[in-house]
Amino acid sequence: MSKKVLILSGSPRKRGNSDILCDQFLKGAKEGGNEVEKIFLGDKKINYCIACAACRDTGKCIHKDDMAAILEKMIDADVIVMASPVYFYTLNAQMKTLIDRTVARYTEITDKEMYFIITAADTSIPMMQRTIECFRGFAGCLKGAREKGAIYGVGAWNVGEIEGTKAVSEAYKMGKTI
Questions:
Q1: How far apart are CA 96 and CA 138, in angstroms?
Q2: In CATH, what number does 4-176 get?
Q3: Which of 5, 40, 42, 69 has the greatest number of beta carbons closer than 10 A?
Q4: DSSP of 38-77
Q5: Helix axes 17-31, 166-176, angle to 10 degrees
Q6: How many CB atoms lie within 10 A of CB 24?
Q7: Is the pTM of the predicted complex or chain greater than 0.85?
Q8: Cα angle at 171 between 3 and 109, to 5 degrees?
Q9: Model confidence over 78-129: pLDDT tens digits?
């Protein structure tokens, strides 16, 4: 059965290491017969949540930016893939800002299969668990969210260093088998 897959690439660099893994996941998911869309967050204008609480009453954020459309896609997706480079053992600002801005309608993001992709210069998987826990914290706030997989693209600092690592084939295979 075909699924609607939304890939959220938090890389600030097009063709950066985590973006490369997103593309491999996308390739596998498309070959698996799924409908796939990738959003490169660096191309989007997403303002910070300012904790004004206006959305509590209306379900709409006061900011007029790209987040409303992204949030609608998150609600409509069957599968959400979230990817971020690791900055100081946590998510980068682009991904964290997106997560914070879901507050207006996060209760509508239900019954999703979740996949997480991280990339880092460090090679210690236990240290990378901190970043995966950030994603899990978000998923834990979503009713019916099920973590289906995580990809650890480690040992990659410079653009493209992820190429040729096992994470590339893992991303493709994971996408193909959703």
A1: 10
A2: 3.40.50.360
A3: 5
A4: EEEGGGS--PPP----HHHHHS--S--STHHHHHHHHHH-
A5: 30
A6: 25
A7: yes
A8: 40
A9: 999 999 999 999 999 999 999 999 999 999 999 999 999 999 999 999 999 9
